[in-house]
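Team,

Forwarding the record for the chain on the shared tracking sheet. I've put the sequence and predicted structure together so nobody has to dig through attachments.
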Amino acid sequence: MSAPTDTRFSCSLAEELARDVLDRFLRYVRVDTQADLDSTTYPSTAKQLELSRLLVAELRELGLADVELTEHGYVLATVPGTVADVPTVALIAHVDTSPDAPGTGVTPVVHERWEGGPIVLPGDSTQVLDPTELEELQECVGHDLVTSDGTTLLGADDKAGVAEIMSAAAYLVADDRPRASARLVFTVDEEVGHGTDHLELDRVAADVGYTLDGSGRGELEVETFSAYGVKVTIRGVVTHPGSAKGRMVSAVRLAADLVAALPRDRLSPETTEERQGFVHPTRIAGHVAEASVSFIVRDHDEELLERHLAALVDLVDELRVREPRARIDVRVEEQYRNMRDALEQHPDVVSTAVEAIRRVGLEPRFPIIRGGTDGARLTERGLPTPNLFTGGRHYHSVREWASVQDMAAAAATVVELVRLWGARES
């Protein structure tokens, strides 16, 4: 399934939705919703609820009667269908943004009808979007692009998805053509691996689902990594450094040794691609007395995933043998599973998305997700949920950007999805 050679397209529905999608997107990205890996609350930051509450107000303004903000911060609502006895479709996006880059004080910048040259971000001139380095930019010459000012992330992951679902919902409410019922679901804490922890399927109340949390134009993702999160906590022995010989056990040094023991030429994000997995240290923190290292372990193959995890545990065991005076604990958390096998049992969920994408003038593309989505967790629990494109790119970075035309195409795809499911028998 190859990408189209001509990326230009024309879709009157997308053109009609473009202004509304952009207005919503610019409004949403200004709300700070950054998640926090260290928090013990749910959601991990109360500020995520500011956008949740804004969405509730806007959904009620659309005239929807069953809008709900749950005790865990999820927003749920229904766009009623006009056809009985057809499947109900869940449309899902997350309101939180990544903690990997600054997320406070987002100032979006719209670059109208971008002509193809490097884009210097106004808040930090060292941050440049150069199409010779970012090849995907070259697909969007002539588009209206949105960036941050270069000092923060933009938040297209996943506020582009949020804006697209909201824009599609507003359009569908005013449209009387045949359609299925659409359940709108906006989650929290997806970026810290907990987006669906408290999302019960009976409250979603749908037969099929789609996350809008992808990237490039026309992409439909049906395969994710399987994933573990691992935290290694090391407790050392503290003495005054002036009399530490033979006594001190530095947790900081042991943590550094653990990271240094990882392969340098393989099994890392920097050295892998496609279906190749990795063991990735994402955070190291602490002091002489106690330090911790957080890892993510990923692979598309379950057997290889277990091997990667075992290799990491072996490195920890070697550290224990070398320094028995230290106390080292390992905590392993299963995060999500590859949704490929489960989605293969529901081919109509994928084929309907393919038809919706084609209806807006695009040829579907099928990249492999080197990560996960809320949809992976929902699919594992019984709601088949592939992932659709949003038009955002270069996520988790101050150089993140989005195409307005591609966001509008994603919103139009949502409209077509709901119409197509309205033509199916339940």
